[in-house]
Design goal:
Length: 246
């Protein structure tokens, strides 16, 4: 059974049609690349799945049931998490504090509510171990590499037992070594049975970790192909319009 299904999803902003009858499905533990030029509709699609926008028409189902996702909080309760390009991390806090930001573990001492720092650090360390990341719970985010920052953002999604993670340009502006680290993190999410939608302009990354690639152009899905049945050249042609559809 598909984890996420979109059927003829459309999104209009006044007279502007940002998405035009987009349909696709994603299986548990599947990594799918989402590619397209600026203005292709990728961001609008991600915002519908994550609850920021509601579709103007069409149906969304998650886990085999109709899903009406009216907010990011509702998406999170379903098991849908988003890692945005800016990561939304607090540089002045530790890795552990970022993971639990807004979801801190506390205990009551009379009228006082105190943070359970030791418990949060221990759980953060467990999450980094699961991801096979060398990031440490008490490391300050402002001193981290791009790859380590991604590890913190991904660990935060694991705190809520995510079933689907949307990743927006996770390898943009980081070194080659850090790219390999982030792609390794994505593979470990798949190994844990978590589905990933990888939004990326980097063709080598999509072909390295994805099983399928969905290509958007001008709000329309123009391809949905197994990676084994396409090539970077074909995907580039689809993105630019040199090839209309595949």
């Amino acid at each position: 059974m598909a984890l996420l299904e979109l059927h003829n999803v459309r999104k209009d902003f006044g007279a502007i049609r940002a998405l035009n009858d987009v349909s696709f499905s994603i299986e548990p533990g599947e990594i799918v690349g989402l590619m397209g030029d600026n203005g292709a509709g990728k961001s609008t699609l991600v915002k519908i799945i994550s609850g920021i926008y509601q579709p103007s028409a069409g149906d969304v189902s998650f886990g085999g049931e109709a899903a009406h996702i009216h907010s990011p909080g509702e998406a999170r309760r379903l098991g849908i998490e988003t890692v945005y390009q800016d990561l939304a991390l607090a540089d002045n806090l530790t890795a552990s504090a970022n993971i639990f930001l807004g979801r801190e573990l506390k205990y009551n001492l009379g009228p006082l509510r105190l943070l359970r720092h030791r418990a949060m650090n221990a759980r953060a360390a467990e999450l980094f171990a699961e991801l096979k990341s060398e990031t440490r719970a008490d490391d300050l985010v402002r001193l981290m590499s791009g790859g380590q920052r991604q590890a913190v953002a991904i660990a935060r999604t694991r705190l809520s037992d995510a079933r689907l993670i949307l990743m927006d340009e996770p390898t943009a502006a980081i070194s080659v070594r850090q790219v390999a680290e982030v792609l390794g993190l994505i593979n470990r999410l798949r190994d844990a049975g978590i589905a990933v939608i990888l939004i990326s302009h980097r063709m080598p990354d999509v072909f390295a970790v994805c099983e399928r690639v969905i290509v958007m152009r001008r709000g329309t899905k123009v391809a949905d192909k197994p990676i084994a049945n396409t090539s970077p050249e074909e995907v580039t042609a689809l993105i630019t319009g040199a090839l209309e559809v595949a």
